UniProtKB/TrEMBL annotation:
A Pfam family of this chain: COX1
Keyword field: Electron transport, Membrane, Respiratory chain, Transmembrane, Transmembrane helix, Transport
Ranges annotated as spanning the membrane: 33-57, 77-100, 112-132, 144-168, 180-203, 215-237, 249-266, 278-300, 321-341, 361-382, 394-416, 444-465
SUPFAM superfamilies in the cross-refs: Cytochrome c oxidase subunit I-like
Domain of life assignment: Bacteria
Protein name per the record: Cbb3-type cytochrome c oxidase subunit I
Length: 488
């Protein structure tokens, strides 16, 4: 099982392989474009909710006359629009596209995939309206009302089956690194979601078991769903764009199994100090610290894969986003391991530091890598290059600077907040007032992210409208997968 074959879908320039990949792209084009459009729509909707929540954090009277715009409802709507709307739709678009290409198996009966996608977004829309209406469950990451979740579960089941079927009917016996991550995530997410819904919403467990289940689910949505999908995308696109195999397949396998073994336990460390069995908390702390292993392994593998080609990385719009995300993965994971230590947790717990940590993982790591995946995938699906390199520049710099400002502001302000909360001589109201400058910086960063998202959406809309005319005029083309357009 190697990634170095000359006919590997990672790096082959063969005309026959390019023709085969083009046929696969055509088979999944309509489904992938539907999920991309849905993802970008939810990204913009979630951005609006994010701005409202950010402003209300330091200006509580802002839009206070509208009951559906209270902070609790707006923040929950933002979280679910971004996680289930943007996150899952873009995973369905990029993840299934990569799986189909690596399996070298065209997608059949894509109409069912589209129907499942439509019902997923209908269910999510019903859920978001339910949150704004006040039917919120008050369980973080599971705020969607109970009447919308069965539709989401059934829709996901139909969508996830396609990735499994593609793998089942793949050509050849090679199992690529990206397939390990994507296939595992397709199994992990429904397992996490169904268990959490059952034990917290549908047939609630008693006492602290609900809290343990909640943090087990919330933490693993990032670690066993968003993380493997993002890493699978990075492992596919880094060698694809650079035209060289990944540095070490065996390091990749080590990183995968270390992630699978340790991350499942890590979320419990958020309950340090709670009425939880000591052995369970200790297991969570040990697992969180052991997460250093897959993080270092992935970091080495990514770095050694691009060593000597840093100029090419910087010139590529795809790799610029992916490398930013890969570096963020290392930083956010090491920070998370440190936060599991009791001496650090007693400062960061119940503060904005944890919020900054979440944004660091979900946006700086996952979202930036998926942006890079879209920048590579869309030209292959539409057979044309991006219409505006300037919009790509705006998107990258606004997103990179915006999320950096947000993470630094929230984690710096959160650390100060934690120290002051642990000081009995400082009144709590004074601590709250001292966080306001950092929260205002967060709002400024939100405006910058909004600019980047608008530039991204405009470029996609421009490309979609122009693609039909260009394709009709020029006829079908085969893009060289070892080359990347839109260089900025």
């Amino acid at each position: 099982m190697s990634n170095s074959s000359n006919e590997s879908p990672y790096s082959s320039n063969s005309l026959a392989v390019r023709a085969e990949l083009s046929a696969i792209d055509a088979s999944i084009r309509s489904a992938s474009l539907f999920f991309v459009i849905s993802a970008v729509s939810w990204l913009l909707i979630g951005t609006v909710f994010a701005l409202l929540a950010a402003f209300k954090a330091h200006e509580p009277d802002f839009a206070s006359t509208y009951e559906f715009l209270t902070f609790g409802r707006v923040r929950s709507a933002h979280l679910n629009a971004m996680a289930l709307g943007w996150g899952n739709n873009i995973i369905f678009a990029v993840g299934l596209w990569i799986m189909a290409r690596l399996c070298r198996a065209p997608i059949n009966h894509k109409g069912i995939l589209l129907i499942a996608g439509i019902f997923w977004n209908i269910g999510l829309t019903v859920g978001i309206f339910g949150i704004l209406k006040g039917d919120i469950t008050s369980v973080e990451w599971l705020e969607i009302p109970h009447y919308a979740t069965p539709l989401l579960a059934i829709s996901y089941a139909l969508i996830g089956v396609w990735g499994v079927l593609a793998f089942r009917f793949r050509k050849g016996e090679h199992v690529y690194v990206s397939q390990w991550y994507i296939l595992a995530a397709l199994f992990w997410f429904p397992w996490l979601y169904v268990i959490a819904q059952t034990m917290i919403i549908w047939f609630p467990a008693r006492g602290v078991v609900q809290s343990v289940t909640n943090w087990w689910f919330a933490h693993n949505v990032l670690g066993l769903w968003l993380t493997p999908m993002a890493l699978g995308t990075a492992y596919y696109l880094i060698p694809k764009v650079l035209g060289r195999p990944i540095y070490s397949y065996y390091l990749s396998v080590l990183g995968f199994w270390a992630l699978a073994i340790f991350y499942n336990w890590a979320g419990v460390h958020h309950l340090i100090g709670g009425p939880i069995p000591v052995w369970l908390i200790s297991a969570g702390i040990v697992a969180s610290v052991m997460m250093v292993i897959p993080v270092i392994v992935v970091g080495i593998n990514h770095h050694m894969s691009v060593v000597g080609l840093h100029k090419e990385v910087w010139r590529s719009p795809t790799l610029r986003f992916i490398v930013f995300g890969a570096i963020s993965y290392t930083l956010v994971s090491l920070t998370g391991s440190a936060m599991a230590l009791r001496s650090v947790n007693e400062v960061t717990h119940f503060t904005h530091f944890t919020v900054g940590h979440s944004h660091h993982g979900v946006y700086a790591f996952f979202t930036m890598i998926m942006f890079g995946g879209v920048y590579y995938m869309m030209p292959r699906l539409l057979k044309r290059e991006w219409p505006s390199a300037s919009l790509i520049k705006i998107h990258f710099w606004a997103s990179a600077i915006g999320i950096t400002v947000m993470v630094v502001a929230l984690q710096t302000g959160g650390w100060i907040q934690g120290l002051e909360m642990n000081n009995a001589e400082i009144p709590f109201l004074e601590t709250v007032q001292n966080t306001i400058p950092w929260l205002k910086a967060r709002s400024i960063s939100g405006v910058m992210l909004t600019i980047g998202h608008i530039a991204f959406a405009i470029n996609i809309a421009w490309m979609l409208f122009a693609a039909g005319a260009v394709r009709a005029k020029q006829g079908p083309t085969l893009l060289d997968d070892s080359k990347e357009g839109g260089i900025v």
